[in-house]
Amino acid sequence: ALLYAHPRCFDLTPYMNIDTTYKGLGIDRIAACKAISNGVIVDAGSAITVDVMQQGIHLGGFIMPGIAQYRKMFSSISVLDHEMNLAVGLDTFPQNTRDAVSYGMLNSIVLVLKQTSKNKKIHFTGGDGKFLSRFFKDCFYDDLLVFKGMQKAINENFTSQGIYV
């Protein structure tokens, strides 16, 4: 209702299309993928969504728990209810429980992203995207990635008609 109360606002959903066979892809993921033609898109928030784009085609993707969700999972195991050490090194084995929990959480995210990205550029966005990007050499962090996809949809669908939003 709020959207329709503002005359310059409108629903972009019908204009947010990407080439994919994925069923149930959320509009936020579609928008982020629309902004990137080639690469891996990692939106690190409450959940971490990972999508792979190649020549404008969405090859697929997956969803993992976000950092805060890992923390919640570990807090339900009383003996592992520790604050995360987000500065834990991933190059040596931990020597205490707090670092072991932190290492396990971070390395499970980092390793799956490295395995998925291989030789592709990684584009991070989301609340924890900047933090996770520090584990990768050839990556980008863009907190406006979803909005850039929205802008691309607007440009593709309206500027050719002489309508400028």
Describe the structure.
The protein is an alpha/beta fold. The chain contains six helices and five strands. It has a five-stranded mixed sheet, with helices on both faces. The longest helix is centred in the middle third of the chain and has 21 residues, at about 95-115.
Structure keywords:
single chain, 165 residues, alpha/beta, five-stranded mixed sheet, 6 helices, 36% helix, elongated
Structural class: alpha/beta
Helix percentage: 25-40%
> What value does the average pLDDT take?
90
Total helical segments:
6
Order of helices and strands: HHEEEHHEHEH
Strand order of the largest sheet: 3-2-1-4-5
Rg calc? 19 Å
- The N- and C-terminal alpha carbons lie at a distance of 20 Å
User: What would the principal axes of the Cα set say about the shape?
Assistant: elongated
Tally of DSSP β-strands? 5
Q: Profile the largest sheet.
A: 5 strands, mixed
Our estimate of the beta-strand percent is 15-25%
Low-confidence segments: none
Q: What is the topology?
A:
Blueprint: H1 2-5, H2 27-34, E1 39-44, E2 47-54, E3 57-65, H3 67-75, H4 97-117, E4 122-125, H5 129-133, E5 139-141, H6 145-157
Parallel strand pairs: 1-4, 4-5
Antiparallel strand pairs: 1-2, 2-3
Helix pairs in contact: 2-6
Summarize the structure.
By secondary structure, this protein is an alpha/beta fold.
